[in-house]
Specification:
The chain is of the alpha+beta class. It has helices at about 20-30, 35-55, 85-100, 140-150, 250-265, 325-335; strands at about 1-5, 70-75, 100-105, 110, 130-140, 155-165, 170-180, 185-200, 205-215, 230-240, 245-250, 265, 285-290, 300, 310, 315-320.
């Protein structure tokens, strides 16, 4: 598989077994998978590296195309507001995105079935991702359909990547992925992935997957109140303890801003991603919230895997997101 704009993203990675379906993920969630993204990231990075080594990546600009007269839209759905921390909200948003797909005139939706060669390239897996999918017959050759899709992004979306699969030098299938310009509240990531290949009579078969990941509940990482904390100590050092810097912020607005930052963080979604390996020179930050009275001490430890480690009263809680926001705030304090 070759890519034109980079098929691998933080939000999703290819898997050897292809996409877990919505039903598969519901079952996996019922088995009690625990959210510990850091335990899954190392394996995902190995899988990503192996795939890149096997297939190679080619970067190029996507082709442009002129407008085509006739279009077919999927049936309209109600644009329900997505509620935070909600699988139901993510499913509603996925159906909404799928309904925005624009296809050439004469296209028709088919009864769903697995079609060889039409597995999506971005695997939304684990417990906090849903995949709403559909299969279409399109009366256009694959190359013309590719141009059409890149010229007709769904309303409110842009082409985020495109590419193709080949066998012995022959292109066997193509893919175009769309991403929303703006995400709904409570949504971590969303994309509409189309994968299509030639069918008989000069037509094409197209599989569309609306993949949506949402922010889960914060768990035990409860929100706190600025009045309960007298100071915050921010430290920065290397993983091996070198180059340590520290500053304590006392009371007032500066403590309130850091408390507000912590309270705005989302629960970290349970999705596969990749991150660099820690080494002795890796820069690490820590924010320690010191209670004024009987409130528990809170410690935030942003990682380089997008997740913030959280300890409350000495107890490790589920991670929060995004780490970048905590690192940016800590850097401002230490200037």
């Amino acid at each position: 598989m070759r890519t034109e704009q980079g098929m691998l993203t933080e939000q999703g990675m290819p898997t050897e077994q292809g996409m877990l379906t919505e039903q598969d993920m519901d079952r996996s969630g019922a088995t009690g998978l625990r959210r510990n993204p850091r335990l899954k990231l190392a394996a995902s990075l190995v899988a990503c590296t192996a795939m890149l080594a096997a297939v190679g990546a080619t970067i190029a600009a996507p082709g442009a195309a002129g407008a085509t007269a006739g279009t077919m839209r999927a049936p309209r759905t109600t644009a329900e507001a997505s509620s935070a921390d909600s699988r139901a909200g993510a499913k509603a948003y996925a159906r909404y995105l799928l309904a925005r797909l624009r296809l050439p005139a004469g296209s028709r939706r088919m009864h769903w079935k697995q079609v060889a060669g039409l597995s999506p390239t971005l695997g939304g897996i684990l417990t906090d991702v849903v995949d709403i999918r559909a299969l279409y017959h399109v009366p256009e050759p694959m190359i013309d359909l590719n141009r059409y899709l890149q010229a007709h992004a769904p309303a409110g979306m842009t082409v985020s990547s495109s590419g193709w699969f080949s066998h012995r030098g022959k292109i066997t299938a193509r893919t175009v992925t769309f991403s929303p310009r703006h995400l709904r509240a409570g949504i971590y990531s969303a994309m509409l992935v189309t994968t299509f290949k030639p069918a008989s009579g000069g037509a094409s078969l197209l599989r569309a997957d609306a993949q949506v990941a949402w922010f889960p509940p914060r768990g035990g990482a409860v929100r706190i109140h600025a009045a309960d904390y007298k100071s915050v100590t921010v430290t920065r050092s290397r993983e091996d303890g070198r180059d340590k810097r520290s500053r304590t912020v006392n009371g007032g607005r500066r403590v309130a801003k850091l408390v507000a930052l912590y309270s705005r963080l989302h629960g970290a979604p349970d999705v596969v991603t990749s991150c660099p390996e820690n080494g002795p020179s890796t820069v690490v930050y820590r924010l320690t919230f010191h209670p004024a009275h009987t409130a528990p001490a809170v410690v935030l430890s942003p990682t380089n895997c997008f997740v913030v480690g959280v300890t409350i009263g000495g107890h490790l809680e589920p991670g929060l997101y995004p780490a970048a926001a905590v690192v940016a705030a800590a850097s401002r304090v230490l200037r």
